Amino acid sequence: MRIALLGATGYGGIETLRLLEGRKDVEELVVFSDRYAEQAIEQVLPQFRGTSLGRIAFSPLAKFHDLSLMDAALLAMPHGEAPKYVERLLDQDVRVIDFSGDYRLPSDLYELWYHAPAAERHAPAVYGLPERYREQIRTARLVANPGCYATASELALLPLLEQRLIDPLRIVIDAKSGVSGAGRNPKMTTHFAEVAESLHAYKVGAHQHTPEIERILADAWVRGREHGGGEFASQDVKVLLTTQLLPIKRGIYVTAYGQLNKEEMTTADVLGIYQTRYEKEPFVQVLPLGEMPEIRQVTGTNLCQIGVHVDERTHTVLAVAAIDNLGKGAAGQALQNLNLMLGLKETLGLQLSPWW
Ligand SMILES: NC(=O)C1=CN([C@@H]2O[C@H](COP(=O)(O)OP(=O)(O)OC[C@H]3O[C@@H](n4cnc5c(N)ncnc54)[C@H](OP(=O)(O)O)[C@@H]3O)[C@@H](O)[C@H]2O)C=CC1
Ligand SMILES: CC(=O)N[C@@H](CCC(=O)OP(=O)(O)O)C(=O)O
Fold first, then answer.
1. What is the pLDDT of residues 91-117, one digit of tens each?
2. Which homologous superfamily does the CATH classification assign to the domain defined by 2-123?
3. Which of 114, 190, 209 to mutate to test the pocket of ligand 2 (most atoms within 8 A of CB)?
């Protein structure tokens, strides 16, 4: 396959390079970076020295013209950049996967939560969560890769909404991320000395993944396991999402709480529902009774680990999920989507052991 990667020097882009390196089916890779234009990957990113990708030079974005020979383009740039390239790529019959939030929401919700004007969108995008939209992804021209917190939260909660087991208006999500989730450009809030040995909540009540999660869960509530494609179902689902910055490099840890509709549900009952829901999913691991996920068991992988527990005293169900924000939360999921879009084996290049 022939792949173009825009935003190749950011954390999402570098992880994409790591996952593509050594893949025998990559015939050509074109990488873009303005900051490192004309330099070889191995000069800028020494971890690729001596690998199949090391000698490839970054092209400046000004050289972004004819990519019609590419099978797909992966866009790993900050919000607001993808729309400058997407139409041209689609016109050249190149499939596109965008890592940013630009195509995940309708324009009104985008403007409300991203505090930026939404780009004019001619192209419809499929939401790139294979565990729910696999069939739509296979035939998509443009995929909006989900946000990292959104991926973990949705996988944690989907079975509860699809089965209508909880009150959809009172969902609480406590979410924590490693610092690489904030990108590679240095900022005071992600400076080592500001985050080490501490923990703090941020964007409280205002995190941009809130409407993304609500839309996918609403769709699950209305349609159950089935998704017919096309428009999302409209239904009120409300989540209170609180995001916190963990003093680690990689990983997302989500603890989601729902109020059970049926009082007699036990942990074993809910666990059975999760096991059935995800039994055929190659990248979702539902843990046995009494076990809870751990970030180090998913770091460096495309896995999502899920543990569930019912607190019978308060009729609350807890669904806990761990992913690597750069794996299932970004590059891993993008390559899972790419495999689907190109008709390849979905797990190709993604069956990785955790670094732990
Ligand atoms: N980090 C994460 O865990 C996740 C990130 N995402 C999303 O993925 C995208 C990339 O994130 P991440 O890798 O963390 O970001 P980084 O800040 O680490 O990297 C940004 C990349 O985009 C390029 N870039 C910066 N500004 C522009 C611009 N104006 N035009 C074109 N290219 C530009 C940079 O290239 P240059 O070499 O020129 O500096 C760099 O390669 C974002 O939209 C983010 O929201 C999604 C899920 C998880
Ligand atoms: C730690 C941290 O700052 N994380 C980012 C989320 C990054 C991501 O997955 O999402 P988008 O693609 O929607 O930006 C944040 O909270 O905004």
1. 999 999 999 999 999 999 999 999 999
2. NAD(P)-binding Rossmann-like Domain (3.40.50.720)
3. 209
